[in-house]
Amino acid sequence: MTTNSHRDTSATTRIERHHYDVVVIGAGGAGLRAAIEARLAGKKTAIISKSLFGKAHTVMAEGGAAAAMGNVNSRDSWQVHFRDTMRGGKFLNNFRMAELHAKESPQRIWELETYGALFDRTKDGKISQRNFGGHEYPRLAHVGDRTGLELIRTLQQKIVSLQQEDKREHGSYDARIKVFSETTITELLLDGDRVAGAFGYYRESGEFVLFEAPAVVLATGGVGRSYKVTSNSWEYTGDGHALALRAGATLINMEFLQFHPTGMVWPVSVKGILVTESVRGDGGILKNSEGKRFMFDYVPDVFRKQYAETPEEADRWYDDPDNNRRPPELLPRDEVARAINSEVKAGRGTPAGGVYLDIASRLPAEEIRRRLPSMHHQFKGLADVDITKEPMEVGPTCHYVMGGVEVDPDSGAAYGAVRGLFAAGEVSGGMHGSNRLGGNSLSDLLVFGKRAGGHAATYVDQLTGRPRVAVTAVETAVETALAPLQRDTGENPYTLQQDLQAVMGDLVGIIRREAELEDALARLAELRERVAKVSAAGGRRYNPGWHLALDLRNMLVVSECTAKAALERRESRGGHTREDFPTMDPQWRRVNLVCSLVGDTVRLERKPLPKMRSELIGLFDRAELAKYLTDEELTEFDALVAADAAAADVEKENR
Amino acid sequence: MGTKRQFRVWRGDAEGGDLQDYTVEVNEGEVVLDVIHRLQATDAPDLACRWNCKAGKCGSCSMEINGMPKLGCMTRMSTFEENETITVTPLRTFPVIRDLVTDVSFNYEKARETPAFAPPADLAPGDYRMQQVDVERSQEFRKCIECFLCQNVCHVIRDHDENKQAFSGPRYFIRAAELDMHPLDTRTDRKDYAQTEQGLGFCNITKCCTEVCPEHIKITDNGIIPMKERVVDRRYDPLVWLGSKIFRRGQVPQTSVTSGHSPGAVRSSAAGGGVHSHAGGSHDAQAEIQAQQGVNWHREVPHPTAPAVDASGKLPLTELTFDRAAAPSPFGDDVTFPLPPEHLNFAHPDQDERNH
What we know:
The complex is a heterodimer. Chain A is α/β, with parallel strands linked by helices. In chain A, 38% of the residues lie in helices and 16% in strands. Chain A contains 19 helices and 23 strands. Chain A has a five-stranded parallel β-sheet with strand order 7-3-2-11-18. Chain A has a five-stranded mixed β-sheet with strand order 19-17-12-22-23. In chain B, 28% of the residues lie in helices and 11% in strands. Chain B contains twelve helices and seven strands. Chain B has helices at residues 32-41, 105-113, 132-142, 149-153, 170-181, 190-196, 208-212, 219-231, 238-246, 253-256, 285-293, 351-355, and strands at residues 3-13, 16-26, 62-65, 68-71, 86-89, 96-98, 101-102. The chains are: A alpha/beta, B alpha+beta. Chains A and B meet through helix 3, helix 4, helix 10, helix 13 and helix 15 of A and helix 1, helix 2 and helix 3 of B.
């Protein structure tokens, strides 16, 4: 058929060239928000998406976007949100990112309303906010349980409205902002240490395309496709992580992966698909096969004070949160995932290897349909289960990577040996520490998407000359991209992907052990050899086998980072649980593990965490800090508190 | 553990192609998209197919399964007979790129032409106040996952490429309706736009779009019909024009309802065929009631009459499964004009005053 005619050699390959000021790779929430900001700053902007415009993984976010607007409980404030975020991340978060996020989220949400978003409302007409795991007050702006879809659609429509402005002004929709859908970037091109462009292919035609641009914003999302049981789509192959590494940037916190506690476990074909946390926020409870509500047995000491001890108290909380403590089903995700894992291991799981999530016995059917329409729809359609009548079967699923590109908290500019590279959203690291709170992701996308887009524009303004793309670099990129098509002796990419998923799922999963991690690294090294020889059948036009063959090398290098960092960190914290080191170690809290690429091997370094500013650490109780900090840090904290008290006394005397 | 099932998948590109037979393993609980993935991993690694979330949320894996437009990820294999051959083809309304992947850029062009939300100038971000009940109507349309099944099934453009320029399709009618119903949108010409620029008048309310919507959005009843109602006094819409010729204005609900429980109901000669319905001819009592709730009886109302339906009480979706070429008459093929006088609905001009 068409196969042979498309097997061009690189010499005759046509490469389409484009010139932009800012290229945003990824068209999810962070990418679109970054692009809007860059365009508003007057920059000619390209948005590159592996899928069609508007299909990004952001649509999977169900619960809502966390922002301390205080619409439902006026006691909420950015300080409380900041505290919850740090607590959820087990104090490993980059404090400055958590601070900016808590402060700026409300504005970013309100701004969406000016773009046309329609959130659910409170009685007085404000944006309604719902409870969620780890958040002290109702904080998640939401639209039923399809908040991610609303967010993506709103940003998509805002971009369309900017294009309409450009059409009026310049005569073309694409004059200042253009979406390249179904386009994959395989390589970033540098001029010295500066970003000069991005090289990739149109999925549809297989033709190559080169974007010459001095600034690139990575917003490519996560890495979940390296796992067997995952809520992530095929796009989540760690492209941005790998592109950043290869361009000389660094990754942090790669050992921390969030396993969402409630993924569907039955039927097999939907294994991993998410069941929103709102089911628990709205009253759903977890039961084992013996019918026991088991979460009360799994409240860790650090959370003992905030969570109910009896089902009676927990049940009162839904109506009277001020005088009762929260149900333990709403513990942070890592805790719930571990608890479910333990129940199943102890033989108290369901036939399909999960536990029961029961909302049917807790709310009237009508109310369930109203509050959780897409969950009702999802279970009815995919599993033929009516959640208003039967409990759901759920278990942990790989959901989110906390780790990512190490960035400057204020600008989103990548650290390491590269300039002009920015990152926002899931692909960036630090904001969520060792564990992300539900709802913090959607607001993270908006806050840091805007920042990265804006700072990329500023960076372009400050440049004196445009970096140039080297011809040889483009030739190499073409060769690398065509290689799988030109080999016919290698393995099928799908087999390799399955093997990679097996290694990561079995050996670098929720519970990790030293011997298994070493084994994983050995197997990844073997896989690296095999991936280097992968071959793809067929031609260049819309060939998913070829696309996967190219994604594999990204998945592999990112998996190596995760395995290496997981082996190095000898403690359990958030999304990283070591069976051989089951507790948190305050010394390890002061350390970030930083990955970089030397040649093509991953290098791991330890780097101290930035120290929290005094007015921020002062927001916490000493008793709480004592669970996380070293004695040395506590002494410092005490001195700080004493100095503050003294200063207050002086002020009183002066008055 | 799995069983072997027969699949016929369309393979080819813009230049042509054909159905190819595959025998493939199917396990319990799987959906059609799983089978496509298994084919990719085994017999056909370069089989092109779009997909993303695999949970019915992104609307990427639209395809025609046994001639029915569906999402591959939401079509369970258990809905087919064990020995049934399952035929999978690309969406017919859009040009094929390769295999199951079609060029849906038509939709994005129409999206770009639809004027965006116009925010109120005097409201600062954070000061927007809206009631839940007021946002719910627009929220229904914002559930749309842009799978484009409604666009694919619409008679106006399916097999009628020449209409594409003047017709935006159901997806963008509900976008216009959504903005029209948005409590704070400041543009007042949404209805006009739908009629003059989007080609709303082409729509003959056959409800096919509503039937295929995986999000169960009542595209016709809640989106298209209200938009048609609102443009009626300003614009020429052949359907509304005809409706206004057949039925008088100002009818009270009791006399306009289908169904037997109302003595004054209109009946045509065909049982179920020409019955005047506000639910677009679904003959579903529930839909009828819901449709009426969305109707303002003090406005001039179009009166779509149902076309003939098949044994399952539904409209034939494609001409392939229908017994004649072209779309069925919106009034029912067994209705002839002029209508016999005894089938005409008459309401006294003063009856509204008397009833109030």
